[in-house]
Amino acid sequence: MNQPASGSIRLWSGIGLLSFFLLAGFSGLGARLWDLQFRQKDHFEQTSRTQRYAVVRQSPQRGLITDCKGRILAASTMIYNVFAEPRRLLQDEQYKLTADTLQPILNVPGYEISKQILEAKNPGFLRLAKDIPSDQQQAVLRARLPGIGIEEAWVRSYPAASLCSHVVGFVGAEGRGLAGIELKYDAVLAGRGGQDVYVVDVLRRPIAAYPEGRSPIQNGDNLVLTIDLVIQEIVREALQKQIREYQAESGIALVMDPWTGGILAWVSLPDFDPHQFSKTPADRLKNRTLSDPYEPGSIFKPIAAAVALDCGAITKDEKFDCEDGYWGQYGGIHEFGNKRYGILNVRGIILNSSNIGMAKIGLKTGSRRLYQGLRLFGFGRPTGVDLAGEESGVLRPVKQWSGYSPTRIAFGHEISVTALQMARAYCILANGGTLVQPHLVRAVINPDGQITDVTPSLVGTGYIIKPEIAEWMVREPLRAVVKEGTGDQAAVEGIEVFGKTGTANIALPTGGYDTSNYVSSFVGGAPVDRPRVIILVSIRKPNRALGKGYSGGRVAAPVFREILQKTLTYLDSNP
Amino acid sequence: MIRFMISRARLRFVIFSLTAALIATTHLRISASRLFHRARQAQIVQEQLRRQLWKKQVELEKLLQPQQVLPHLQESSS
After folding, report:
1. Which label site among A43, A137, A355, A520 has the fewest CB atoms less than 10 Å from its CB?
2. Which CATH number belongs to the domain containing residue A497 in this structure?
3. Is B2 within the bounds of a domain?
4. What is the pTM of this model?
5. Residue among A489, A430, A387, A444 nearest A256 (CA)
6. Which residue of B has its CA nearest to A203?
7. Is B1 on the interface with A (CB under 8 A)?
8. Cα–Cα distance between A370 and A418 in angstroms, integer?
9. Which parts of chain A have pLDDT scores under 50?
10. The last residue of a domain, from among A141, A159, A177
11. Is the same domain home to A128 and A238?
């Protein structure tokens, strides 16, 4: 009777033991399952994604910059570079085989490749060859060398090189704008990077697209400038020739459309090659048109006289005693060359460029009205042109003026202006007294070719001076300056030209003036009836020792004439 | 029981059909992947050619700059 009972106990204990092991086993499996499914979920998901998908990042193409006729000023092109991973090539002296293989492909001696790899400072990356042609690129890829790859890189090209360097500017190694339009419009030109995601096979070959991971690339917008490269070349050539002839320190020249404020040419010499900007001395990188305010001297007189006429302080026919070359009051004022003018009206004062006459006009206008008028012309504040680093010049508030100030400011002393402010002021005179906004960008065009932004023109939005005064100033005194005055060198046969010469002393930072050096200027336009262009030329420190002269009429006016003649011919044939 | 049993010939046909469908599916998937890969390669080549063309265009632009052309025009006119 005992035997069956003990057998049953053994059976049940065996079943119990088996159940325990089974339970323990399943519990273990369950725990592992939980571990894989929940605790390590992220890790495995990531590993799976990495194995399954390949992400191809795309850097955007920076926008194009063209002149007003569509000539390319700046463009980005893709280049292909060969790179190596030195730490990988140094294993088992693999670099020797690599150098042997690359030698005939890159046409570089093998020992040089080896040397570069051995002396590499960064063990992770070494650029072996830059901008290789496509056949070399294919050959490198076919060779399937471990530790060797091809990288893509955008490079910025400036086909016009130094011709337009101060306007266009340049980009740095990271592809960000560092100067000029490239800096000011960096956000517009840069674009936005994108990525494509692909499902890949075991050899990492893309076998399907994965649209969910895709973010579209947005190339940069393109800019069309108001600059005309042909006029730019005309201006640069004329200015450069004169700077060489007079051994001058520097020079600037601007050509503007007086009706829109569009800048057709902008030259600041010395200039630089934007491809080599990092090797260029800082002095050459300076955009003097914007960053070099100077005392304008006589070219300022028509502006002060226009302000006086506009506010009714004087009349056109009013006579002023311009003394005998020297006026002892208000600190003593000399005429240039101590010329004796006697009694002159406003036309005569501007025609002869009388300092004493202008001083008396300044006094009659009064500090407040003179200041307000000049502020309306835009002096003492940036013009807002679309370039970075614009100086505002100096027009001190009236409370800081001395009793002498109205007499000095009226003939262009005690005030500093930029060439752009000066050219804009003459645009206001030329277009009948309306405000214009100097600008360089004519339109922004997206990569699909649609215009997204057009620079607004301020023409007609407000009069700075009465139209009849602006017109009289251009038709009478300024035309007379060229016809019978100091600006005769600016005359062009068959065209009615107007303008004003200026020979200004250079203010010293320590106070007073440099009496041996001058800024020689000429600013004007043509034709008188409906001016098509305003041209400003300023040449700094022409060498007086040469004995060729140093006045604005002698140094700057011939440059003006050459620019005007060629520009009008060009504009007639290319409307 | 005999009524519900499929004949040997019918069983062979079913197995053959299933195998054929599997092979066809696999073939289609491989073909799709291969074609996608080739299309992608062609797309890259096209992009490279487009970039090369653009590069040539920029180089040409360099040669046609007024700075390069005007001196020649002046020489020929004088």
Report:
1. A43
2. 3.40.710.10
3. no
4. 0.84
5. A430
6. B37
7. no
8. 19
9. 1
10. A159
11. no
